[in-house]
Amino acid sequence: MKRWFAKSLKRKLSLLILFAVVLPLLSMGIVSYQIATSVTEDKAKQAGMNTLKQMTDKLDFVIQDVENTSIFLIGQKDIQTYLNSKEGDVNSYSQIVGTLWNLSYSKKYILNITITPSNSNPVLFTTTITNSGLQPLLQQYESVYKSATKWWSPLYEIQTSDGPKKVISLVRPIRDVSTFKTLGTLTVSLDQAEIERYLTDSGWESSGFVLLLDQYSRIISGGDPSWLAHTFAEIYPNLGKLEQTSGVLNVENMEQPHTVLYNQIPRLGWTLIGFIPTEIYQKQNGYVLTVTAVTIVIALLLAMGLVLYFLQWVTKPLTKLTKYLKDLNPEETIPTYEVKSVDEVGLLVHSYNKLSERISRLKDQVQLNEAMKKEADILALQAQINPHFLYNTLSSIHWIALMNKDRQIADMVGALSDFLRFSLNKGEEFCSVQQEISHAQNYAYIQAIRFPDQFEIEFFMDPGMVQNSMLKLLLQPLIENSLIHGIQKKKAKGHIYVHGELRDNQMKFVVEDTGIGMEEAKLRDIQGQIMQANHQLGVRNVTFKDVKIAVTSYGLINVHRRLLLHYGAGSGLVVESTIGVGTTISFSIPLEKGEIEQ
What we know:
The protein is α+β, with helices and mostly antiparallel strands. Helices cover 52% and strands 20% of the residues. Strands 1, 2, 3, 4, 5, 6 and 7 form a 7-stranded antiparallel β-sheet that branches. A hairpin with a 6-residue loop joins β6 (163-175) and β7 (182-191). α2 (9-75) packs antiparallel against α9, α11 crosses α16 (554-567) and α15 (520-536) packs parallel to α16 (554-567). The longest helix has 67 residues, at 9-75. Residues 540-551 have low confidence and may be disordered.
């Protein structure tokens, strides 16, 4: 099987392309299914949470309305008068009961309003209650009830003329508006059946249910009727305490897995808890899985047919070309192949016929372009040095002329003139060692006038090399670097030594200073820039990691690049430095390339 595939490009391409099509399609299908199932679940949870919040808003409105009604009744003038009178007035009693009845009748969720006077006056109520479970609750929660201005009771049962009713009551004391003396107790009872209707009419999932818990985590409404008045922990002991005001839980330990959503009513600390069976998601996910699988199978079949057809069409000219070249003798001149098409295959054959000539021409052109580009970059960097130096020097001459008529002015102007004349030099790149030394001495003389008593410079040259030729403008940037970065940053007077000697058919130059030296990090940075320049100019005998390093020493790197371009790899700068001692920069020039033509 392996050899069968190896002998045919079409077979290998078919297999590779099919893999390239099948794997992304399968991956896309799996990812799409996972995303769809996640989105389905998230949307169901979001919809459930929105429904809980809508129910929360309704219940919060009911609670707020009941509390506002109680405040209205407590401050009502007729009620205050009735509770303050020692003997109940029949007319006043009837009028107040009518008011209470109108309030309870207009609000379906209010089952009963009861006002119990502290004196012997008759109790006012809207519903006849033969037996109430409120009194035991008041005794059970006496400490909470008496210390609060209002208190909501747990769920309890009352016996009315219409039969038993389950209610939740707001109980609060009625005080005199003037003396704040307790006159009685107001009880507003909510009909649990009406609260249940809010939950069942909310549009919750038909296979799920919603529970309403009071501040004591007892079930007020929802779920199995036998759960009422039981604590949530008694019904679902493994769910634990709901710490947050709202959230989502996945429960696996019920008869069937459920997603549990809960949201707290902040006004009373009641909590709505909704249960959604996860089988709802699974049914939707099964549908998504079926659609995804069918789509992927159809796409795979279509892709396989198209791949095989197009491969046959594309590789047919290549098959003919292979048969044509199969029996050719490598020792003989390869004949040209007739080009019959203008597509990629035709271009391939045409390029093959012209390959050798084209590569040679392009190689020469690239080398020439790179050399010209590098030389232009170097000339641009070199041109940046002279204007900057010229402006500083002319400024110094100007101030000396104004402040002190001295012979130094003439000498400084002369040195500057020689310096500029040599720098321009009609564009010539080479000069004698003596001219390079004179140029550096002119620069040093000018700087010595600008910065008196800051440094001394000495030149030591081998007499046998002064007439040899060298690339110009090499020493001056190195002296400038020593002066600016080494000597001027030192408090004491510094020294610069320029050495030149013949050694093993080479001219070696050294610029040494007694400045502040370089820290190890700065030295490594400059050496890294030198190595990067070696890499960019194609020097092979250095190790360089392909990392971009910001150039911070333009003068040094400029000199280093010019040396590499004109003299090769062995002529680059060598930088050594010791913090607090000084810096030494050296380079070597092959003697055979520096001889002066006679």
